[in-house]
Structures are given as C-alpha cells and as structure tokens.
Amino acid sequence: MAKSREISMNLPSVDDLFTTQEERDQKNQEYVKDISIYEITDFPNHPFKVKMDDKMLETIESVRDHGVLVPALVREKPTGGYEMISGHRRKMASELAGKETMPCIVRNLSDDQAVIVMVDSNLQREEILPSEKAFAYKMKLDAMKRQGQRRDLTSVPLAQKFKGKTSREILGEQVGESQDQIRRYIRLTELIPEILEMVDDKKISMRPAVELSYLPKEEQEILYDIMESEACTPSHAQAIKIRKFSAEGRLNEDVLLSIMAEEKPNQVEQWKIPKNRLKKYFPSGTSQQKMEETIIKALELYRRREKSRER
Questions:
Q1: What is the pTM of this model?
Q2: Order of strands, edge to edge, in the sheet holding 82-86?
Q3: CB–CB of 154/162 below 8 Å?
Q4: Helix and strand tally (H, E) in the chain?
C-alpha cells in the first residue's frame, strides 16, 4: 500500500495577489505628516496620567510659540484615523494651545508591538507614579508573553531569543527592577482605585499595599472607609494580619477596626491641631509642611525669649 504524501504548496497571500511590492514596502515604512488632533484617539487603557501641572503649562506655552518640536508616534487604525502610541501630553498641549494639527510619525505596529513601544517611551520620564508603573508593567509583560508564544516565520520566539529567560526576567533587566519588584508592582493593579491612589500619595507604602491587594474588592472598600474615618493606614505587619484573617474567612469590620487600633512598633504619640484653627494664621494655600515648619520656628523663638527672661 503506497504511503500518502503531503503536498506543500506555498500559496500567495491576499496582499501578494492584489498589491504591488512597492505598495507593500511603503505600508511597512514609517513617515512623518501633520495630522488633525481630532483624528487621533488615545491609546486604549493608557496607564500614564496626563496632568495639568507646571510642566504641562510650560509645554502649552512652548507649543503655542513654536509648535510641537518632537513629532508624536501614532499608528493607523483599521477603522480609520490614528491611535496615539507616544505623545499624549503633546496632544493635550496642542489642544489647549489652540492648534488644529500636530506632526506625527506614522508607524506600522501590531497590537503587542504598540503596547511595548508605548510603555518603553513613557518609562523614560523622570517622575512615574506607582500606579502608572503597575499597569504599564502588566501591559508590557502580557504583550511580551504573547510574543513569546509566536511561532510564525517573521518572529523568533521570545524565549528562544533570550536563551530561556522568563518574560519577567527580561522585563526586569530592561527597566532596572528585580523580578520580585515587578511582581509587587503588578499586584497593585488588584487594588481598588481609592487605595491605589493612597499608594500614589505615599500614604501607604509598597509592601503593605501588596498584602492588601489580595483582599476581595468588598473587603478593600470596608478597609478604605475605616482608614478614612479613623485617619490611619496599616503597617506591613497589620496588612499581613488583615490578609491572613481574610484568607481564613474571618475578616469583617469589627476585626479590621481591632487590627487598625493596634499600636504600631514605631508609632510615637502625636499632637494634632485641627487645620481650621490654624488657617487664620497662614495665607491661603499654605501646605501642611510649611505650617509645621513655621510653628516649630515660632516655638524655638518663644523658648529663646523665655530663657532670656529667666536670666
């Protein structure tokens, strides 16, 4: 009985049949053009905040006087228009400066390539919030893992390229973080927005925040309400205890209140003066730190005067 033979046929793709080589080459080339800002949509789930801060005001002024000096990076959308990869701040500045268009580099990128380029371009900034790193690392790691699974003719599998290293190892080397630190940041994406904002505001440090990320959302919401009403945040040891009670199914509002009332090892007695009692002594908008510095200086001056009277 003759063995059946598989016939390998290298059939041309649809693009090969209906486009010229010149058109295919041009499609893969990037180019610069002025694009209406109304044709450019933000990157889906863009993890980096675009804030109206002093730097933004400077950027608006620069764009108003000189235009956008460094082109943004976009890609064409299948449905028409463009998707922003890098340049969200420049786009906002252009809008507020009254500009109709902005120069952009148009590059042909796959979804995963776009995620990686978007994250890498924004991680170059000087100040990055923990929440921004958290979602950016997660997006890039997911894209890298998907790329590592590819076996097509145009892409060497990521694991093969990097000699068996995990995607997390590669990401850590690229951004200068340990694997554990990458894992901690990505855990922050499991926090409810209110608690994640407290991490950004440095009210809760990384390690207790990671422990709290294992709580169900409902328990996080109860904890947040307690932190707000009691004006307190958990230490690392308290967060570990909270997570343990949660895993055992014994966490409730009373247990949380009891844990949060425990004295922290490094806790020192603090004097609190209601802010509304101090407002009349300071100009509007004075920060809490400035108030404290001024009060300390006043007390030091008062003490020196008292000592001089005793003499």
A1: 0.71
A2: 31-36, 101-106, 72-76, 82-86, 40-41
A3: no
A4: 16, 5
State both tokens at 114.
């776009």
Q: Is 289 exposed, middle or buried (0-12, 13-18, 19+ CB in 10 A)?
A: exposed
User: ∠ at Cα 255 (250, 260), nearest 5°?
Assistant: 135
- Please compute, for residue 244, the number of CA atoms within 13 A of its CA located in the half-sphere on the CB side: 7
- Close Cβ partners of 185 (under 8 Å, ≥ 6 residues apart): 130, 133, 134, 137, 177
Whether 154 contacts 199, CB under 8 Å: no
C-alpha–C-alpha distance, residues 137 and 183, integer Å: 9
CA distance 133 to 189: 10
Please report the pLDDT score of residue 195 as a whole number.
Answer: 97
CA distance 256 to 234: 10
The beta strands (E) that lie in the chain are given as: 31-36, 40-41, 72-76, 82-86, 101-106
State the pLDDT at residue 307: 73
Q: How far is CA 200 from CA 125, 215, 265, in A?
A: 16, 19, 24
Confirm if 64 and 98 have CB atoms less than 8 A apart: yes
Say if residue 154's pLDDT is above 90. Answer: no
Q: What is the pLDDT of residues 187-233, one digit of tens each?
A: 999 999 999 999 999 999 999 999 999 999 999 999 999 999 888 99
> What does DSSP say about strands 101-106 and 72-76: parallel, antiparallel, or unpaired?
parallel
